[in-house]
């Protein structure tokens, strides 16, 4: 009795502590798992990457504009790049240029690149949706496993309480002399067995919580308590009349992985067209604008005086002759940076045509490889559909079997309860011995456990079918 009292006290303390913990509903668990899933984050990054690529490809229709500049310091005898004169002093010069070009025709390559990027973006978003659905289903499965473990623990604890009550009753009967002392031994053994089942059931609860925390990326030491709703058995359709082909048709119409596969097939077909454009001429137009600056450049200014220039070496009638003349002297001003850029401005336009002639058969090989990718994508899509069909066939068969198992477990549990009640009455009257009583109780307890297992298996199997039918997974 002391051990039982301590066990009950510990259970009550544990239960009271759990009541103080945060209660998590299925929707909250799913939301948390989606927000903290590393795999889903990676899938979202892939979707963002596809969106960036699509945006970049749309800008391929715009001109390609680039600018460049460089500044040089020169020493010694050099050519001034502005005047093309030889000079023998240090100076600095700068070149500036802007060029632009746009593709006029390339066999529709840009259009196909834009279309393909859009398809890849749609497929990546469907991957995110598929992963979201899969995580939701995994969380729901783990959540139901916790509910099953909790109900099983409650059932095991009830069995302990019942044995304790019966043991107290048999002790009173022994004290009154209506029962032999040996009759309590079977009940004591039954009590120990049921307490062991409580420990096992509590371990199963802890493991179920750990499994859910791992799926949710939640710290295993975090104390949590799930909401225990009243889950009704499936009644919205006749389980035994379910058709696997009809469920498959429903799943094929909405399953993101199926739609993503079809989109990737279209993307692979565009790869073939893109490979063919490498064998088509490309026409483009472009233009450039440039100017330069030199720190040595000067501009003739005002007249500041004259100088006499004398030249000899002339001969007149056999006599040497010197010639003198006046030469004006001008001031030379430094030309400003902006003025030089304006004065040295130059521009031009051009058109380019690139005609592929022969590239060692690489273009044809790329086309054939792209066609193989299309065939490979078709096979992958067929495999995905076959796997989906197999999963649905198994899911429909499982839910039908679970329904039959639940009905059978329910009938067994009802029968075991009736046997136990009858044996309990006979035991209290002294007609049945303790062995018969504990046997009836064990059979009833096992039937209750089997019923709980069958119930949650049936519920989970029905939720899987709901998932394939595109229904939102809820427990209400």
Mean of all residue-level pLDDT scores: 85
Helical residue percent band:
55-70%
Largest sheet: 4 strands, antiparallel
Outline, from the CA principal axes? Answer: elongated
Strand content: 15-25%
Biggest sheet strand line-up: 2-5-7-10
Element order, helices and strands?
HEHHEEEEHHEHHEEEHEHH
Q: At the fourth CATH level, what is the homologous superfamily of the domain at 17-61 and 107-280 and 361-394?
A: Outer membrane efflux proteins (OEP)
The CATH architecture name of the domain at 17-61 and 107-280 and 361-394 reads: Up-down Bundle
Top CATH class of the domain at 17-61 and 107-280 and 361-394: Mainly Alpha
Structural Rg: 45 Å
Q: Based on DSSP secondary structure assignment, what is the total number of beta strands?
A: 10
Per-chain topology:
Blueprint lengths: L1 H19 L2 E2 L1 H11 L1 H21 L5 E11 L2 E3 L6 E3 L2 E15 L3 H68 L6 H34 L8 E2 L17 H11 L1 H22 L4 E13 L3 E19 L2 E16 L2 H7 L2 E9 L7 H67 L5 H35 L8
Parallel strand pairs: 1-6
Antiparallel strand pairs: 2-5, 3-4, 5-7, 7-10, 8-9
Helix pairs in contact: 2-4, 3-4, 4-5, 4-7, 4-10, 5-10, 6-9, 7-9, 9-10
Describe the protein in words.
- It is a single chain.
- The protein has a domain at 17-61 and 107-280 and 361-394: Outer membrane efflux proteins (OEP), CATH 1.20.1600.10.
- It starts with a helix and ends in an 8-residue tail after the last helix.
- With 476 residues, it is an alpha+beta fold.
- The protein contains 10 helices and 10 strands.
- The radius of gyration is 45 Å and the shape is elongated.
- Mean pLDDT is 85; it is low at 1-19.
- Helix 4 runs antiparallel to helix 7 (256-277) and helix 4 (109-176) packs antiparallel against helix 10 (434-468).
- The relative contact order is 0.13.
């Amino acid at each position: 009795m002391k051990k039982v009292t301590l066990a009950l006290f510990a259970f009550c303390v544990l239960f009271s502590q759990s009541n103080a913990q945060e209660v998590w509903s299925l929707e909250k668990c799913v939301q948390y798992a989606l927000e903290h899933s590393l795999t889903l984050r990676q899938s979202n990054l892939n979707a963002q990457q596809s969106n960036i690529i699509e945006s970049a490809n749309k800008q391929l229709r715009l001109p390609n504009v680039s600018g460049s500049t460089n500044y040089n310091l020169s020493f010694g005898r050099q050519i001034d790049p502005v005047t093309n004169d030889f000079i023998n002093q240090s100076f600095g010069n700068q070149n500036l240029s802007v060029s632009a070009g746009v593709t006029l025709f390339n066999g529709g390559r840009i259009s196909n690149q834009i279309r393909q990027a859009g398809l890849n973006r749609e497929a990546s978003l469907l991957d995110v949706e598929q992963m979201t659905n899969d995580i939701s289903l995994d969380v729901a499965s783990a959540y139901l496993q916790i509910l099953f473990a909790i109900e099983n623990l409650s059932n095991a604890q009830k069995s302990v309480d019942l044995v304790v009550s019966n043991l107290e009753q048999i002790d009173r009967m022994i004290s009154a002399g209506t029962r032999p002392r040996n009759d309590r031994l079977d009940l004591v053994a039954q009590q120990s067995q049921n307490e062991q089942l409580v420990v096992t059931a509590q371990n199963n609860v802890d493991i179920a919580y750990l499994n859910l925390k791992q799926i949710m990326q939640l710290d295993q030491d975090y104390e949590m308590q799930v909401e225990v709703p009243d889950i009704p058995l499936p009644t919205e359709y006749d389980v035994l009349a379910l058709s696997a082909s009809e469920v498959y048709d429903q799943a094929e119409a909405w399953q993101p992985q199926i739609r993503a596969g079809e989109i990737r097939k279209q993307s692979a077909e565009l790869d073939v067209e893109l490979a063919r454009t490498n064998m088509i001429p490309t026409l483009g137009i472009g233009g450039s604008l440039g100017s330069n600056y030199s720190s040595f450049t000067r501009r003739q200014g005002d007249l500041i005086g004259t100088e006499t220039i004398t030249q000899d070496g002339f001969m007149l009638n056999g006599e040497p002759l010197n010639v003198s003349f006046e030469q004006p002297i001008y001031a030379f001003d430094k030309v400003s940076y902006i003025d030089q850029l304006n004065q040295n401005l130059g521009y031009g336009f051009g058109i380019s045509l690139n005609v592929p002639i022969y590239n060692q058969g690489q273009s044809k090989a790329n086309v054939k490889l792209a066609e193989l990718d299309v065939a490979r994508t078709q096979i992958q899509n067929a495999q995905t559909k076959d796997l989906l069909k197999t999963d649905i066939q198994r899911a429909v068969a499982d839910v039908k079997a679970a329904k039959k198992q639940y009905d059978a477990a329910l009938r067994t549990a009802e029968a075991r309860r009736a046997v136990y009640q009858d044996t309990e009455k006979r035991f209290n009257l002294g007609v049945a011995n303790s062995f018969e009583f504990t046997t009836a109780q064990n059979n009833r307890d096992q039937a209750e456990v089997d019923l709980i297992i069958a119930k949650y298996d049936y519920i989970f199997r029905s939720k899987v079918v709901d998932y394939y039918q595109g229904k939102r997974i809820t427990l209400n």
